[in-house]
Amino acid sequence: MIFLQYAKCSTCKKAKKWLDEHGIAYTDRPIKEEHPSADELKEWHAKSGLPLKRFFNTSGMLYREMNLKEKLPAMSEEEQYELLASDGMLVKRPLVITDDAVLVGFRESEWERTLLS
Question: pTM of the predicted model, to two decimals?
Answer without folding.
Answer: 0.93
